[in-house]
Amino acid sequence: MKKILLVIIMMTGALGLHKAEACTGITLQTIDSMTVTARTIEWAAQPLTAMYVVVPRGQKQRSMLPDGTMHGKTFKATYGYVGIAVENDAFVMEGINEAGLAAGLFYFPEYGEYMPYKEADKSICVSDMQFVAWVLSECATIDEMIALLPTIRVIGVDPRASTVHWRVTEPSGRQVVVEIVDQEVKVHENPLGVLTNSPEFTWHLTNLNNYVNLMAGAVNHREVGTLNLHAFGGGSGLHGLPGDMTPPSRFVRAAFFQSTAPQLETTEATVVQAFHLLNNFDIPVGIQFGDPDLVPDMPSATQITIATDLQNHRFYYRTMYNATIRCIDLRKIDFDRVAFQAKALDISREQPIELVEVY
After folding, report:
1. Residue ranges per domain, the chain?
2. What pLDDT score does 5 carry?
3. 238-277: b or e for each residue (b if 16 or more CB lie within 10 Å)?
4. What is the separation of C-alpha 35 from the centre of its chain, rounded to a whole number of angstroms?
5. Which residue spans within the chain are E strands per DSSP?
6. CATH architecture of residue range(s) 2-198+261-344
7. Percent helix, strand, coil in the chain (nearest 5)?
8. pTM here?
9. Exposure winner among 6, 33, 194, 198, fewest CB in 10 A?
10. What are phi and psi of 83, to 5 degrees?
């Protein structure tokens, strides 16, 4: 159990290792208002042990406590679900259940504050790393989740670890962000569909006002004295868009890239579009280290990219080792009969390269 706790501490940016806090989430809709969510999962310290999990109906799950034991709240999967877990098959970072409800965890360092753990309340305690699993197991809608929130207490398993926040999305496109700030659970409607990390979600929405001048397309030419000034190329309307990898800058970029993306006819085309948009947030592993000797031997700090088709219940992913988009179709799974599964995302940690034969 000590090893699991150490992994959580490292993953959530504790002890000054702020190299994980770079998740970026977007939400797209088709012409017919079908919803696709997408996001990245980053960690620059070392390769994550990542797996997809298939959880059948009726699967009994139990939350971890600060002592590392699984003696917290017990919950049973009313709905079967599929997701991606890291380091432990209970720690689901992103997933979708058979009702079409999707949920994901995003790091939220320095700004969140959970209620302190009390042993007397352990039967209602859900660890922050298992909140996604609890939502997908228990809820078919956002309103159901909101109604159940007072029945649980979200806890961290180590006081040195970062806090997190979450987004939950329905097939209709309704999305909320759940944050615990000053020990108070707050549920924010998210009509924009973008989420990154700290500060609070409402701060990011306010910060967008600093970029009210940005627009799609090109800036018109103008005359200054005898000079005729014109843009050097397309996209000059977004000149000044922040390009660094901090959460506020990624939130702004994601908001404008998402808002300017054309709506497509099918969810499958929209899923591919989402992966293309998130290419803009793929973080080279070296930029988060001041000392080049400390850069780990792996391809990218963006380790996993995910897209979810909420209408058709299809879950897509690719990894830093394999850029091929892979898909799990929940409608082909019999959640009454399937066994619990947790399988590695990559059999080989090496990008496949196809040789083109020329004759």
Report:
1. 2-198+261-344
2. 52
3. beeeeeebebbebbbbbbbbbeebeebeebbebbbbbbeb
4. 16
5. 25-29, 35-42, 50-55, 60-62, 74-76, 81-86, 92-97, 102-107, 125-127, 153-155, 164-169, 175-181, 184-189, 222-224, 227-229, 302-309, 314-319, 326-329, 341-344
6. 4-Layer Sandwich (3.60)
7. 25, 25, 50
8. 0.93
9. 33
10. -160, 180
Own/partner contacts of 325-332, CB < 8 Å, gap of 24 or more, are 325/271, 325/272, 325/275, 328/52, 328/54, 328/82, 330/80, 330/81, 330/82, 330/96, 330/97, 330/98
Q: Which of 136, 142, 179, 190 is nearest to 315 (CA)?
A: 136
What is d(CA 86, CA 227) in angstroms, rounded to the nearest whole number? 57
Round to whole Å and give the CA distance between 14 and 23: 16
SS3 131: helix
CA dist 162 and 8 (Å) reads 9
For residues 276 and 269, give the distance between their C-alpha atoms in angstroms, rounded to a whole number. 11
Q: Which residue has the tokens 């280290």?
A: 289
In the predicted model, what is the mean pLDDT of the chain? 92
> pLDDT tens digits, residue range 254-299?
999 999 999 999 999 999 999 999 999 999 888 888 888 788 888 8
Q: Quote the tokens at residue 252.
A: 């702004």
Buried b (16+ CB within 10 A) or exposed e, 141-167: bbeebeeebeebbbbbbeeebbbbbbb
